[in-house]
Amino acid sequence: QQPVQSPQAVILREGEDAVINCSSSKALYSVHWYRQKHGEAPVFLMILLKGGEQKGHEKISASFNEKKQQSSLYLTASQLSYSGTYFCGTEKTSGAGSYQLTFGKGTKLSVIP
Amino acid sequence: DAGVIQSPRHEVTEMGQEVTLRCKPISGHNSLFWYRQTMMRGLELLIYFNNNVPIDDSGMPEDRFSAKMPNASFSTLKIQPSEPRDSAVYFCASSLNGPPGGVGNQPQHFGDGTRLSIL
Questions:
Q1: Which residues, other chains included, contact B87 with Cβ-Cβ below 8 Å and sequence gap of 6+?
Q2: What gap in Å lies between CA B67 and CA B49, rounded to an integer?
C-alpha cells in the first residue's frame, strides 16, 4: 500500500526550514528518501532502518518512528538547490524481505530567493 | 563508475507497435527494478529481479508487458502491443542486496529513464 506524504507541495524562501512527512498503514522495515529534479532521475538521499533513528545529509536529516509507522524529512536553512520533488519509499515488514519499495506520490518543494 | 544506463532516452511510436526498453545495471549489483512514473500514479514498481530471477511481477499492468534479464548486465522491458495509456517515463534502478529474507538497507540507483510516448 502506497505511503501518504504531506504536504503535497511547499514553497520556501532561501534559509527557511521545512518538514515532509511520510506515513504508512503497514509496519515497516525501512524508509528510503529520494529527491527528483524536473526531467531527471530520482537521487538517493538516505535510508532509515531503526525506530527513532535520525540520519543526516548536509542540512537534510530524517527520523523514523517505527511505532507510528512514519518518517519525517527535515530540511534546514533551505538552499535553491533543494528544489525538487521528494519521495519516500517504504519497505514493508515481510517474511520474504524482497527489498521492494513502495513510493509515495511525492512532495514538491520550491525554494525561491 | 558508470551508473545505470537506459536506452533509448526518448521513444515515440504509434499505437500497436512493439516497444523495447533496455537497461544496463551498475556492475556488481544483484537487484534490478523497473518502474513507471506518471503524474497520476507517481512512481510504480513494475517488476523486480534478484540475481537475474524475477521475484515479483505483480506490478506489471497486463499481459502486454513482459520483462527479461538474460544476464547480470542486461534487462529489457517490452510492451506489445503498445497503447496510448502506456505513455510514461520508465525508470530502471539497481542495487546490491543480500539474499531474500534480509533487510533492503541498500540504496537504489536510478537510470535517466526512457520517456515513452504512444500516439
A1: B116, B117, B118
A2: 10
Any bridge partners for residue B38, and if so which? B42
Choose the closest CB to B43 out of A40, A43, A87.
Answer: A87
For residue A87, list chain B residues with Cβ-Cβ distance below 8 A: 42-43
Of B56, B108, B113, nearest to A98 by CB-CB distance is B56
Supply angle C-alpha B74, B80, B86, rounded to 5.
Answer: 90
CB neighbour class for B55 (10 Å; exposed up to 12, middle 13-18, buried from 19): middle
Phi, psi of A18, rounded to the nearest 5 degrees: -150, 155
C-alpha cell, A75: 530540511
pLDDT digits (tens, 9 = 90+) for B6-26: 999 999 999 999 999 999 999
